[in-house]
UniProtKB/TrEMBL annotation:
CDD domains: E_set_GO_C. Keywords: Signal. It comes from the Eukaryota. This is WSC domain-containing protein. Residues 424-515, 547-640, 659-755 form the WSC domain.
């Protein structure tokens, strides 16, 4: 157990200090201990933020070191990009977004992470998972962010250096973890550190962590058309989100800047504010204090990094705000009383003076205490400025001191008005405005008001002036583009420079006409911009980096933004700076708008059209002589000489792949989603890409959303989630990879259905059934049917939950009605926990077991020769002596296979429980010489996700190995790689899903039929994407040319699946879970349904849905074919709360035994067969004749962790004369490696009881091995 108190001076634990309040200013909620690595903070009034970039880096390293401790413990394969928060910036800067997301996803779904946390800090799992979730989930929001090229070199170290620093930090930290008792970091200003708003379920506020991870940027100039579009595209989610933002600010004491950021967050991120399922495990209320603290910390980091970051353009919406149960008190000090609730405009304040501002300690009483007599005081709501507030009015609790008034009610504050005049300028009223401006010349006016705007227009020689959006000023000679008068009430935004008068509204202008006669001449260039006071501006025609050159002036925002990417506004923008910034990100088009806005792209979108060059009349913020666009006008430059403008996108309804059909715009049931599988096709999403991916993984319903998101699911999901179709106009975002077609909108999907059957899952009337078989003594980990027709079980020895366990037992199937007689106690000498086993081809059909849990056990080689008969106990026991016989490498989780030459192949594993990898293979009996193990680099690279690799002999004599999500063919002569096969498909949204332990699926060889000319096929079903179980099977014929994997979807997700070969050539799929990975306590949601896979049917029509059990079969469960054709179902050792150590043993009665038919009988006299030989059997059929009879040979297997080692099914050639039938044995060891088989005959669908036969003898002379005193040799 690590020492929780061990510390490194460079990485002090994050220890809390008492709350400390600073009167009248902001509060440093986060306190760090003194030391060499202590980050310095600056109190900015409303938040403590890191003082410098070095302080920010220190914080990230401190948290990253803590995270690296747990990552290092499991040695998860996580890309360097996600090892530390410091590396996130580096990898994003280098465009390695997929690497960051891959590592993030791996750890997020790593159920072993939970186990590590429990081991390190018992009782503190929920808090620790929450802390690290904050760090990890922030990655999800930062993936689309591009870091500034000029700043990031100071932060971004080389990948090698950063990874090394992370590992050193973890080592130096001594794996110290903060005890949960020290995690309750308090918030200042409130003794309980939980305001009323935070006392709700923590899930209510979980989305803030997603939001806090994203940057905030200056509000950009928008027209009302685009504003309304933004509102419309996210109307469903934001109605809830906007209210929670307010409660989050007050409950979590977020500074105004952080709240402004939340309002400007893109809809896809804002969904987190209403998504109560964002965390995989919701935290209880008592854990909220820790998370609130981390939220403030994240907010401070966010505010520090804001100036460093470029981001994609985000829409800025405006919202109404509701109170969350606030009550205006009546018991007030002195003679103060409430006048009620009044509106407060966003452009300026109804009450002109803010005497006391506090976002963390505001109360009615504190506001009154600092307010002058007879002055109304606004309370309860901090000011959040926004231009887009046409329909938003704030509500103020207004209070007065009635003792200062006598005889009459006090007068209310003066409301703003439309100023009738300003000097010789007369008001013409309120007029409409649009993307095509009513007044064509924009002015940059600081502190906009009627007076300052009219003065600017007078100076430039224009007789008409108009104010819009509170802080925008426009001039012109005449009203153009169909401007008409609108109701005065539409102009309802107060001037940014004078709160007593209105300055237009969204798409509305307060227009004034100059009535004097002394206007100066109109300034050259049609009026200035960018602070050039009307001086002429010109496009840059020379001096740009080669090959950049000016293209034209383009109209923006008629249908939406015509550039896909916007960089942050910069008051010092020039044409040169914008070209350099976009060129650094490999864009070929640049657009500059409204003096200070820089856009990048490769094509123009949203129906862009050219405008006259004179429309781009605003000077650049950093060079007033350069033209930098105008209001809704872009000065466009190109590096290719070509500019492609795409039309307004529409939903793609023709040219769709396969049988897909467009169904309409589907509204997400926020906060839930319609379809369960989400894919991010960043920069390359399209209907074709999304639909092809969904169809390839068997999903008949699909949709695209937010431009670059793809969702897959079933048509039934729509009804199950209550989703409804919305107006087509709600889907209004172009596909990131196809700008002429739509890919949804804000919480809206362009939905498509497959017109046909993708998955023909059968639901037969006869589905078989589960039956209780017998009560067990232990939880078996390894199950093997012996040639004595008894079942050998091995379980943990020394680490068993039962002190008196001997580690080995044998079940007599004929005595299950008497538990006292059915079980025979056997013995092992070392711990077989997670070892491997096969049945040998020697005369006694001995079971060999190799490897184990730790120390000497990992080197163990154990042998047992089954003896006795049904109803008669045997006397043999397991034999083992590590001093006489052991493996060359200790192995935990190894696989074993009898090769075509009769020797035994042992592959992979680890050197002990969660110990280093053993990426080697070795042969038993051990060849002469020294170390004869063979290093396998591919196992070394994919550890620890390759344990219990799948091994099969191929008809070429080569060996197939499947590990993690890869596969190869090996030459057994020298173990060179003959062929690297394509990677196995994973889940629809992740190619990282794996198939071997701990991402455990199950594998079999499909049956081989005489004359054995068809290529052999490997089938693998189930697996996990690091916590999300896989719902498909994949199959491949590895030795055909250009071999590829074929995927078939299963009806449900399944990890820790088991497959049992049946005598009729079908396979039962059962056991496992729908969530998690293999291991103790790492999976839940058991899959109780059994499936039948029939390879004789067409692809996608092979699966039948059978019956359900009531017994959860999770980790350490097995399925084994019995001699009578039933399937033995045993085990489950999950150590998961709510699921017991399962000792009940069941059998499944397959459909072929569930029809009341009599099983045929078979008599075999010769049981030792040579390759190609012919052997006679006698049969007795009850329902058909030999013309419809089949013969099958099912190889003896040993099953553990869903890996049926040695499995193979063969249908040999035979002929019959009456009841005597002659079978031709397989021709060679490549078709059928030497070993024991159960021979079945089938009368129609009904199998007989089996007879044991051996094919191919014992070519490796295993019957004479090992020649040591403690081992009994059966001979060959």
């Amino acid at each position: 157990m690590p020492n929780f108190k061990a510390q490194d001076a460079r990485f002090p634990a994050l220890r809390p200090q008492p709350c400390k309040q600073k009167a009248g200013s902001g509060i440093c909620a986060l306190r760090w201990p003194p030391g060499p690595a202590e980050p310095r903070f600056v109190d900015h009034g409303l938040a403590c933020i890191p003082k410098t970039l070095d302080d920010t880096r220190t914080i990230l390293e401190l948290l990253g070191a803590q995270l690296s401790v747990l990552v290092a413990r499991r040695r998860r394969v996580i890309h360097a990009c996600s090892r530390t928060p410091a590396m996130i910036a580096c990898c994003l800067r280098k465009g390695r977004v997929s690497s960051v997301h891959r590592g993030y996803a791996a750890l997020r779904h790593d159920q072993a992470f939970s186990q590590d946390v429990r081991e390190l800090d018992p009782g503190g799992e929920s808090q620790w998972k929450g802390v690290f979730s904050v760090i990890l989930h922030s990655l999800e929001i930062t993936l689309p962010i591009h870091l500034h090229a000029k700043i990031m070199p100071s932060i971004c170290r080389s990948e090698t250096e950063s990874l090394a620093a992370s590992e050193r930090a973890a080592a130096d930290l001594g794996r110290s973890i903060i005890p949960s008792s020290e995690m309750n970091w308090p918030l200042a200003g409130d003794p309980t550190c939980l305001r009323a708003g935070a006392r709700a379920s923590f899930t209510e506020f979980s989305g803030v962590f997603r939001a806090i991870g994203a940057p905030s940027f200056p509000v950009r100039k928008r027209t009302a058309a685009s504003t309304r579009k933004s509102i419309r595209q996210d109307s469903t989610g934001n109605k809830v989100a906007k209210d929670r933002v307010w409660s989050l600010q007050h409950a979590f004491k977020l500074p105004d800047a952080a709240v402004n950021f939340l309002y400007s967050t893109p809809p896809r991120f804002k969904r987190g504010l209403v998504d109560s399922t964002f965390f995989s495990t919701p935290l209880p209320v008592h854990g909220a204090r820790t998370m609130v603290h981390l939220t403030l910390f994240q907010a401070s980091l966010c505010l520090t990094v804001i100036p460093l970051i470029h981001a994609i353009h985000v829409p800025h919406n405006h919202y109404h705000h509701k109170r969350q149960g606030d009550v205006i008190p009546t018991d007030l000090p002195g003679n103060w009383s409430s006048l009620g609730c009044y509106t407060d405009n966003p452009g300026a304040r109804t009450l002109s003076s803010a005497s006391f501002v506090s976002t963390d300690n505001m109360t009615v009483e504190s506001c009154i205490a600092v307010t002058y007599l007879r002055t109304a005081a606004r309370t309860l709501r901090p000011r959040i400025a926004t231009r887009h507030a046409r329909a938003m009015r704030r509500k103020l609790a207004v209070l007065v001191d009635v003792s200062a008034y006598t005889g009459a009610e006090p007068s209310l504050p003066r409301l703003p008005i439309i100023a009738p005049s300003s000097g010789l300028w007369q008001s013409l009223g309120c007029f409409n405005d649009s993307a095509d401006r009513a007044l064509s010349v924009g002015m940059n006016v600081a502190n906009n008001s009627v007076q300052t705007c009219t003065a600017a227009c007078f100076t430039s020689g224009y007789p008409l002036a108009g104010m819009e959006f509170a802080d925008e000023c426009y001039c012109g000679l005449t009203m153009v583009n169909g401007a008409i008068s609108e109701p005065d009430g539409d102009c309802d935004m107060t001037c940014s420079g004078n709160s007593s008068e209105f300055c237009g509204g969204p798409n509305r202008l307060n227009v004034y006409n100059y009535t004097g006669t002394d206007l100066p001449p109109v300034s050259g260039g049609g009026g200035g911009g960018g602070g050039n006071n009307g001086a002429p501006v010109f496009p840059v025609l020379s001096g740009l980096p080669i090959p950049w050159k000016y293209n034209a002036c383009w109209v923006d925002n008629v249908n939406g933004r015509i550039f896909p990417t916007q960089l942050p506004d910069n008051a010092n923008t020039t044409v040169e700076s914008c070209v350099n910034d976009c060129s650094a990100q490999n864009f070929t088009l640049v657009g500059i708008e409204f003096s200070t806005q820089c856009f990048c792209g490769d094509n123009l979108i949203e129906g862009a059209v050219e405008a006259p060059d004179s429309d781009c009349s605003m000077g650049c913020g950093g060079n007033a002589t350069e033209a930098c666009g105008g209001p809704n006008r872009l000065s466009v430059y190109t590096s290719t000489g070509n500019v492609t403008a795409f039309p307004v996108p529409t939903a793609q309804k023709t040219g769709l792949p396969g049988k897909w059909e467009y169904k309409g715009c589907l509204a997400e049931p926020v906060p839930n989603r319609v379809f369960p599988w989400q894919l991010f096709n960043t920069n390359n999403n399209s209907a074709e890409a999304c639909l092809n991916q969904c169809a390839a993984f068997g999903y008949p319903a699909a949709g695209m959303e937010f431009g670059d998101e793809c969702y897959c699911g079933d048509v039934e999901d729509i009804q199950a989630t209550g989703a409804q179709f919305a107006p087509e106009t709600d889907c209004n975002i172009a596909c990131s990879g196809d700008p002429i077609h739509l890919c949804g909108g804000g919480s809206r999907l362009n939905a498509y259905f497959w017109n046909g059957t993708l998955n023909d899952w059968h639901t037969p009337d006869n589905i078989g059934r589960y039956e209780y078989f017998i009560g067990g003594l232990v939880v078996p980990l390894i199950a093997t049917v012996g040639i004595n027709n008894k079942v050998s079980f091995l379980e943990k020895f020394g680490t068993s939950e039962f002190d008196n366990s001997t580690g080995a037992y044998e079940l007599d199937l004929s005595l299950v009605n008497d538990t006292s007689l059915a079980w025979r106690e056997m013995h092992v000498k070392s711990d077989v926990f997670c070892s491997g086993a096969v049945v040998l081809p020697d005369k006694a059909a001995r079971l060999i077991n190799v490897g184990g849990w730790s120390l000497d056990s990992t080197f163990g080689v154990r042998l047992y020769a089954p003896d006795g008969s049904p109803g008669v106990n045997g006397t043999n026991d397991w034999e083992e002596n590590k001093d006489e016989l052991k493996l060359q490498n200790g192995r935990w989780y190894p696989s074993a296979l009898v090769l075509t030459n009769g020797s035994i192949l042992i592959v992979g594993g680890e050197s002990g429980s969660n110990a280093p990898a053993v990426p080697t293979l070795e042969i038993l009996p051990r060849p002469p010489g020294g170390d004869t193990t063979v290093f396998l680099d591919f196992l070394n690279r994919t550890d620890p996700n390759n344990l219990y690799p799948f091994l099969f002999n191929l008809p070429s004599g080569n060996v197939f190995i499947g590990y993690y999500n890869e596969a190869r063919i090996l030459n057994p002569e020298n173990w060179d790689v003959v062929k690297v096969l394509p990677n196995m498909p994973g889940s629809v949204n992740s190619f990282l899903s794996g198939r071997t332990y701990p991402l455990e699926g199950s594998a079999v060889l499909l049956p081989q039929f005489a004359p054995y000319t068809d290529p052999v096929t490997v089938l693998i079903c189930g697996g996990s994407n690091f916590g999300v179980a896989v719902d498909n099977c994949v199959l491949i014929s590895p030795e055909v040319d250009n071999a590829t994997w074929t995927l078939e979807r299963m009806p449900s997700k399944r990890v820790m699946s088991c497959m049992a070969a049946l005598p009729d050539g079908t396979f039962m799929i059962l056991n496992g879970a729908q969530q998690g990975v293999a291991g103790f306590g790492l999976a839940s949601d058991p899959n109780l349904n059994a499936l039948l896979y029939d390879p004789s049917q067409p692809i996608n029509s092979r699966i039948s849905i059978l019956n359900n059990t009531i017994v959860a079969r999770l980790y350490h469960s097995e399925a084994t074919l019995l001699p009578d054709g039933r399937v033995l179902v045993s085990g489950s050792d999950p150590q998961t709360p709510g699921f017991p150590e399962e000792m009940r043993v069941e059998v499944y009665i397959p459909p072929y035994l569930n029809e009341g038919r009599t099983q045929p009988t078979v008599n075999v006299t010769e049981t030792d067969w040579n390759y190609g030989g012919t052997y006679t059997i006698n049969v007795h059929l009850f329902h058909g004749d030999t013309s419809t009879m089949k013969v099958s040979l099912v190889a003896a297997t040993s099953s553990t962790h869903g890996n049926t080692m040695g499995g193979r099914t063969i249908f040999p050639a035979f002929s019959c004369n009456g009841n005597a039938c002659t079978i031709t044995a397989p021709p060679n060891a490549k078709i059928s490696p030497p070993g024991w088989h159960q021979l079945f005959i089938l009368d129609g669908p009904t199998p007989s009881h089996s007879a044991w036969i051996r094919i191919g003898g014992d070519p490796a002379q295993l019957g004479n091995w090992p020649d040591f005193p403690d081992f009994t040799l059966p001979g060959v």
